Amino acid sequence: MSTGKEDKAKGTANKAAGKVKEAAGKVTGSEKTEAKGKAQQAKGELQKGKGEVKDALKKKH
User: Are 44 and 18 within 8 A, CB to CB?
Assistant: First the structure.
C-alpha cells in the first residue's frame, strides 16, 4: 500500500504530465490528446487528494 506522500507525489506528476499533454493537444489541434491531458490532470487531483486523506488519517492515529 502506498503512503500519503507517495500518492501526493504521483498526483503532482500526473497533473504536470497532463498539462503537457493538454498543451500539446492544443498546439497540434488534437482534441483527443487535449482531452487525455485533462483526464490525466483530474487523475492527479484525485491521487493528491487520496494522499492528503491518508496523511490526515495517519495523524489521527
Answer: yes
**CB-side neighbour CA atoms (13 Å) of 9:** 5
Predicted confidence (pLDDT) per residue in 5-60, tens digit: 999 999 999 999 999 999 999 999 999 999 999 999 999 999 999 999 999 998 88
Whole-model pTM: value is: 0.88
Beta strands in the chain (DSSP E): none
Distance CA(53)–CA(27), nearest Å, equals: 36
Q: Rounded to an integer, what distance in angstroms lies between the CA atom of residue 37 and that of residue 41?
A: 6
All cell numbers assigned to 55: 496523511
C-alpha grid cell, residue 48: 493528491
